[in-house]
Amino acid sequence: MNTQDQHHRGLLRPRLVAAAGAAALTLTAGLATPLNPAPHQAQAKENKKVLTVAVAQSVDSLSPFLASRLVSTSIHRLMYEYLTNYDPADNHAIPGLATKWEPSADKLTWTYTIRSNSKWSDGQQATAEDAAWTFNKMMTDEGAATANGSFVGNFKKVTAPSATKLVIELKKPQATMAALDVPIVPKHVWEKVGDFTKFNNDKQFPIVGNGPFILTDYKPDSYVRLKPNKSFWRGAPKFDELVFKYYKDGDAAVAALQKGEVSFVSGLTPAQSTALKSQQNIKVNDAPGRRFYALATNPGAQAKNGKKFGDGAESLLDQKVRQALFLAIDRKTLIDKVFQGHAVEGEGYIPPRFSTYFWKPEASQQLTYDPARAAKLLDEAGYKKNGDGKRVEKNGKPINYRVLCHATDPNDKAVGQYLKEWYGKLGIGVTLNCLDNVTDPWLAGTYDLAFDGWSVNPDPDFVLSIHTCGALPATPKDTGATDNFICDKKYDELYDQQLAEYDTAKRADIVKQMESRLYDTGYMNVMAYPNAVEAYRTDQIKSIETMPKAAGNIYGQDGYWSWWSAVPAGSSGESSDSSSSTGVIIGIVAGVLVLAGIGAFFAMRRRSTAEDRE
Amino acid sequence: MTAEATPSLVEATDGPAQAGPSVRGPRARTRTAYLRYVAGKLGGAAVSLLAVLVTSFFLFRLIPGDPVKYMTGGRQVSAEQLANYRKEFGLDLPMWEQFTDYCGKALTGDLGTSYQFRAPVIDKITEALPNTLLLTGTAFVLYTALGIFIGTRSAWRNGGLSDRVNTGLALTLYSIPSFWLGLLLIIVFSVGMGPIPGLFPTGGMESGGNEGFAYVMDVAHHLILPVVTLVAVEYGQTLLVTRSALLDEMGSDYLTTARAKGLRDDLVRRRHAVPNALLPTVTLIFINLGRTVAGVILVETVFSWPGLGGLFYQALSVPDLPLVQGLFFVFAAAVIVMNTLADLIYPLLDPRVGR
């Protein structure tokens, strides 16, 4: 034992001492913080107005050729000008890098006039050549087409005859030419890039751009920092810095807003918004959203080659059954109970905030909550109740619909419970199939109903295109752009018409006909338009522009209006300053106590070893 | 991996080595035995690592979901773009071809390119690893020291007031969900509550824009709350293991002998009892060390700490196969390496092991 004793004595002590030392070091470091940099920071930032936005989504890439996430594309909006922008009031196309755009008589050539007062942040002039190079790169390099390739799919040729003139030739007419959401990049910087699939544009700062802000620094999952572009042609932003700061937890972000560490938080839950509403210096913005929330029907999955696949219920092929399912849903209850008022009752496909394309069903076609009429429709369709009160498929089996739901979305689960109740009363069974990742059964068509939702753009072309026959997968093995295998001839005809219609009013009229058709078919049961619930500190932001202006959202706009227009409040940061000075005092007291404890511990140890030596 | 998670303690209970018919001296014999022991452990570790490499490929291909569909979800893509994605990620190749490709690259240290971040997996990992190690490493040192310190004293005064209070407190904290405790600390100490002012930042690792000493201090300031959360939740485990191991030793005759020699109680504990009781704690220390690399998803999320735990969660939700595989391999490798280290250290702590 004695040798072991010696052995351990040597081993144990350094470890304990080292551990205690490390502990002491950490604590001192922590203690010193409120002492040292806080006053420096306060001084440096005294006159600097910083707008801090809490974000949760990680940046996928800072290269506009690769980025597809909302956080990244929103930041690109701030860094680069697009050819056109959307009016914050009503979403119509307005000048961006282009001041004017017009089609040729045959509708196949578009000529854009590029503004001569937009400069890259390295001093060079932004020209039509930059735009032509950006589009050509996407047309010729697969890697550069990763994010926005679909925009140039119909382009035949893009040229820049002069510094202010851009000419795009099309294969066939395309009405969306004032809605090309493609950041135009400086040719002189980007032509040095080799492999576009691997270049993330995140090594050299500041990043050369010509938007209202210039990106100066980025640390993954920590922050993105931008400074105002003082020579921005529309006028420089008013804040001195714009910071996107990462909060991975919603409640922590709300805490940061309450403290004043961030100026703005988005994506609030009903509970969070209720809690924030009563607080001083915080304004909650309960804005009409750009999403629709729907129950999609499996119309019988099929591929372009005509092959059928999947196993959707046969009864759903009957339009009357699908309409009965519409009639059995009490939308008002869903808005009140599930969305707790933070949504608008759904009807047409496009949300009301896009006023040009918003459509409401006529009284004669409207399918409002009416369980009796639903039961009658089902009877008419031949799906009568059996002895057990259950409706049966043509093959004699009781109808039981499998509803595909997102396990990560509490709304899906809550609405699912209501569906069980309402459809149950009709004699139809419901099985909720909630999955973390719904793509597999979705693509295989192995579901009956599915919770579905899309964010709609100012130009509705894309959300309309995903229900055309052309979007079906080529074969059952392929993946198509289709949302849920809808293929309707009449709808397709209208789709082609709207894409070739260059007159906005006439095009809107066709789009509304498409929405009407989609509604009648009963494939897409739009139940709600969820609101975007956000909040900001009024002692940091005096005013900020929403989109649409009258009532709209702030985060994730189709444009740079919110951050560009934000006006700093005069007394920004005052409250946090006073609390941090109290913090310093308490921090010192706490730190001294801890250090005293550690000191006592060491003193005791030394004394005991000293005694030991005697 | 689980088979390797607990270092083989069985050998610790083995009796002294049997005297063989060897003509060599006992010292040489011991050294040969130790070398054989080391070789065995290292070989086992190498096999485990290889097994992890293979498993990680197939395991994550069982996750439902199509990475391409996930990544292009919610935006405008054409069928050609979808095909391009598949080609770029190599998902259009047959499974066995993907596997041989993966193995070949992995053996040369190339873990592939992340689907969602378009960056080499190794870059994403080395970017977040220091952040995680700073958080979990600091917490590890503190909760281990605290656990051993209180654990030994609790056992020594078994049943006393301080023992009951400490054990009770440790057990309570141990059973508190870390994210809840973290959020509570944020609300009380970051935002401030009543007379308590907001002392600490609400999240993140730094305020940004600081350099040099100010940067170090800024990070330390951000580090305090997450470390406190981790220490509070974790120290109980070390405390309880240390306490029970020491309790087992306390009835031993050699302690009576030590006391009979006239040694002070403090010394009896520190020099005689604790070293002999430390073996289970050492096991726990190395298990915890292996775990520090994997990060702590919940605490990292609540405090928005840009570490590996959060990265793993993001990788899983796509699934970003190369990133998931790479992270899984690194996590498993850390555990294997630490357990092997523990195995190698045991014979030094207790000569009975490995003979």
Concise summary:
The complex is a heterodimer of chains A (614) and B (355). Chain A is of the alpha+beta class.
Structure notes:
The complex is a heterodimer of chains A (614) and B (355). Chain A has helices at 2-35, 37-44, 70-79, 128-140, 187-190, 250-259, 270-277, 319-327, 331-338, 371-380, 410-426, 439-444, 461-465, 489-500, 504-521, 561-565, 574-613, and strands at residues 50-55, 84-86, 93-95, 98-103, 109-114, 155-162, 165-170, 213-219, 223-228, 241-246, 264-265, 282-287, 291-297, 343-345, 400-406, 429-435, 449-455, 524-530, 532-537, 541-543, 567-568. In chain A, the strands form six sheets. In chain A, strands 14-18-13-17-15-16 form a six-stranded mixed sheet. With 614 residues, chain A is an alpha+beta fold. In chain A, helix 1 (2-35) packs antiparallel against helix 17 (574-613). Chain B has 14 helices and two strands. Chain B has helices spanning 2-5, 26-61, 67-72, 79-89, 95-107, 121-156, 161-174, 178-191, 212-250, 253-260, 265-294, 297-302, 308-317, 321-349; strands spanning 192-193, 196-197. Chain B has a domain at 120-319: Orthogonal Bundle (MetI-like fold). The interface between A and B is large, with 88 and 90 residues.
